[in-house]
Amino acid sequence: MTENEQRLLTRVAAEARNTLPWGWTSVPAPVDEATVTRAEAALGFSLPPLLAALYSRIGDGGFGPEYGLLPLLDSPPAGEPAAVTQYLANRESGRKDPDWPWPEGVLPISHWGCAMYACVDCRTPQATVLLYEPNADEADHAWYVDAPSLADWLQGWLDGTGWYVDANIGIEPEPWADFRIRTTTQAS
Fold it and tell me: Which helix (H) or strand (E) holds 89?
């Protein structure tokens, strides 16, 4: 992990202690390395190091923008599904409805409400954060680049510069150009 990512984790940890998203009464304890390993085994891919560090050093969800990060593997009393559970359900749903495929390696990490999710593309080196907005007419118009990297997404939350901040109404994420490529070339 880079020095910048270490500093970012320190800032995220401080903010997580000071602000709780809607529905959370406290930040759950961090997960242990065995839980990260079990999650990766269930997913079939590795978590980006920064994402793994959020869960293993700060807490098992409950911090971050809006409703906060989902728990990694086990659902807490707040009732949000775990990220792994949501990913596996979305992949299965995409197999059943080929018009709405779910890209391999795109892990939902935060629920925005109205069935929208912030997702980390675990297949990109920078861990691009995508916005899934299923209220669109078709799947091709449901995916956007929320932030070029997980580090940028976290920085936007800390600095109040994300598209979702009231002061930034009108800022629209760009469509995710790789959606169709990633869903037509992947093995189901």
Answer: helix 83-96
